[in-house]
Amino acid sequence: MTPDQIEDAAGRLFEAERTRKQIRLLSLDFPAAGMDDAYAVQAALVKRKVAAGAKVKGWKIGLTSKAMQSALNIATPDSGILFDDMFFADGGTVPADRYIQPRIEAEIAFVMKHPLSGPDVTLFDVIDATDYISPALEILDTRIERVNVETRQARTIFDTIADNAANAGIVLGGRPLRPLDVDMRWMGAIVSRNAEVEETGLGAGVLNHPAMGIVWLANRLSQYGMSIGAGEVVLSGSFVRPVEARRGDTITADFGPQGTVSIHFARE
Questions:
Q1: How many C-alpha atoms does 125 have within 13 Å on its Cβ side?
Q2: Please, is 191 exposed, middle or buried when counting C-beta atoms within 10 Å of its C-beta (0-12, 13-18, 19+)?
Q3: Phi (first) and psi of residue 154, to 5 degrees
Q4: Would you give the distance in Å from CA 226 to the centre of its chain?
Q5: pLDDT score of 131
Q6: Among 23, 17, 87, which Cα is nearest to 49's?
Q7: Nearest in space to 12 (alpha carbons), one of 52, 47, 41
Q8: 3-state DSSP assignment of residue 246
Q9: What element of type H or E holds 254?
Q10: What is the model's pTM?
Q11: What is the pLDDT of residue 128?
């Protein structure tokens, strides 16, 4: 993609989020674009959001489970940026007009006490750099249509990455824990919508260990001269399928001994 095309795509996404109106698949307009192009569009979008007053607070990692990778025919995770206006209090309420088509995933969040720079970051480096972990919900939204009505083409990995990895919100809750105080592979959640169980899963679904998502991110960022900063929050990746969040719904993730985290979506 040319610099002008990158800026054009980023501008469309910025307006889509501002107006709450989905845009046409970018992959239809830029069929030859690859993952580097997608991250270039994401970076241009982040620049626009920062210029508009948003503050970067961390990272989200997606497509860490085999099921989600198979669904999109891709063998690598993706990542996006967390902004300050994406954070909701545990048990809080999302305004009815905040998102377009929100969905929820259960994850383990890492809060970093030391910077983490690649290459060659290991799981043990991640554990050492982490201040604490916390049960979390990620709110996904898509500013790009999921399926194009005319062509029936579905959203591709290019669309998802360009759209800040469908990143929209985060809720931290439950019990904060030191990373060595729990076996994260067996740290799981029962995800309910309005008290009806929708999904269950274990942390091992994330690359066999949630910390491996942070490993992947730190090493990928090093290719671009970037790193994870101290104090940043990193969502390590979902171990459940996304749950649709409709107006009036309350989504709760019960992490058992690690506590619960929930969010309510206003009806009007």
A1: 17
A2: buried
A3: -90, 160
A4: 18
A5: 98
A6: 17
A7: 41
A8: coil
A9: strand 250-254
A10: 0.94
A11: 97
